Amino acid sequence: MTRFWTRLVVVLTVITGVNYIAWRWAASLNWDAWWIALPLVIAETYSLIDVMLFGMTVWKLKIRKAAPPPPPDATVDVFITTYNEDLDMVMTTALAAQKIRHPHSTWILDDGARPELKALAEQHGLGYVTRSEDWTSNLPRHAKAGNLNNALMQTHGEFLLILDADQIPEPDILEKTLGYFNNRRVALVQTPQYFSNVPADDPLGSQAPLFYGPIQQGKDGWNAAFFCGSNAILRREALMQLGLVGYVKETEKSIRRALAASRSAIKQARKSADMETPLVAQVLDEVEAATREAQKELDAGQPLGEITYRVRRRVDAAVQTLVMADVEALQADLEEIAAMELAHVGESGVPVVADDAVQRMSARDWSPLGALESVQAVLDALSVERNDEAQPVMPLATISVTEDMATAMRMHAMGWESVYHHEVLAYGLAPEDLKTMLTQRLRWAQGTIQVLLRENPLVQKGLKLGQRLMYFATMWTYLSGYAAVIYFAAPIIYLLLGILPVTSLSWDFFIRFIPFMVVNQLLFAVAGRGIPTWRGQQYSLALFPTWIKACSTAARNVWFGRPLGFAVTPKARQSGGPSWSLIQPQIVVSVLLAVAAVVGIIRLATGLAEPLGTLVNVAWVIFDLVVMSILVRAVLYKGYEPAAEPAEPTNTERNSDGV
């Protein structure tokens, strides 16, 4: 019945939403104020697409029951990733992981290479892995993804349970999840991330009950539930296949770029080298022919190693021919110089080189340098060793600071399946101050936009239509910062200047707008089955500067190569008093909203404003200020203070589906 009512409300939402937006575009735009009317209707269209994507997500809501019994012989490595977290925290998680009942090996993946942590691991019989000395400073480390990729090459378990340093697992976490892997196509089982240091009112919006609930359950129905970085079990076979396929694809791209670049270099070399010399022309012809043949072999799907071996052999032979010719010419000139020295002896008896010999030597093209450098560039570029990376095969994606989503999307594109198990089986620590929360949200948004720009799911081969849209839906939400700016600006402009972005606030407007808004909110209520969603709605609007910054910085990183730092989320409250400077843009917007409301009321009282328009926009301002008010609580939040008896969720509370 839950699915029936959810689908019914989805249909009503789409009908009322399309009816409203179609009318807005066709009949309501105030073209005299197009500079605000057009952005507003575009923002509303964005929001309609957003809610339609949400409706599609929950359309196939999958409520799983208990997993099948786990395979008794399954080997598991438990990975605890850490960089600079407190040692006590890491050891608490590691010792809890050691007590997991299903047979396994527990590994601490210490990217901070701390001797004291290594000693603690050895003392308690835990595995310890860090980067090798081969990781030089000039090679990319790829943060958490690189840490996990390094550990994958040093362990052997058939399955991997990945935990952040603060995520303390339950002893039965593997018993309740491994059974899904009886299906040989399942590569990932994701469980919720639940935070034990979050008060009931959740002022920083950490719990995300909507995402770790209807959204992931809906994506699960489309076989698109994705990896969230922790509290997940992955199949090693799928990851290694992903790494090998990725290695081949990246190597092939590198070879294609090298071959194209070599032909361009040869073309330039023909212009700069002395083409009257037959040998130079012959060498360049030989190298160009070798690259063209290599391109044909590449298109035919021949082994990359054999292609690069053959082309390098031919290029080596051409270069050697050119070098030997230069050596022979050099030897002849040296012999000529020696003869000249013997023929010309000065008054002091010291040999003198004739002026004509000096001129000939300085004017001579000792070697076709441009051609030689072009050939050498081909030799350097045509390599399958990936010397620009610390390890050639990288199973977890490294294209983004959020390696989890990109990795899951690639696995789905290869035909693997995923599972979302809706039961809290590990307890972590959420940010306890606004600065840390903003850093965390910025990294999530940046990474998601990086994936969108580098591997847009809408055009990825191997993904089914539903999977494409499920990944795109998550990426689409992070564009909301731009829409929020318009939603804040529209009432301010009307109340201060009297400029309405619609032709009029008539009955036609309200009969379309109000039903859409009502069923929109009803959709969240029905899909969420009673879970609180208001905090999430507040932060989706209130953090508009963070979302805009994420989009702009991720775009600069992808298009111009500007690096994005990977900031480990601190697990303890950062020192210092309230940081009002962190929300300066929101404060400015709130002040403008409040001033606009006062001015609008004054204009109404003096007969300078239309009553209905003023009341609607004042109500809009009040809503926006209520949304923004959460930031005041966030700035003043002093961290979690547990009650006398910490309230952990019961089994029923952990999983509303009865798992």
UniProtKB/TrEMBL annotation:
It is a multi-pass membrane protein. It is found in: Endomembrane system. Keywords: Glycosyltransferase, Membrane, Transferase, Transmembrane, Transmembrane helix. The chain crosses the membrane at residues 7-27, 33-55, 469-497, 509-528, 587-606, 618-636. Its main location: membrane. InterPro entries: Cellulose_synth (IPR005150), Glycosyltr_2/OpgH_subfam (IPR050321), Nucleotide-diphossugar_trans (IPR029044). This is Cellulose synthase. It comes from Pseudarthrobacter polychromogenes.
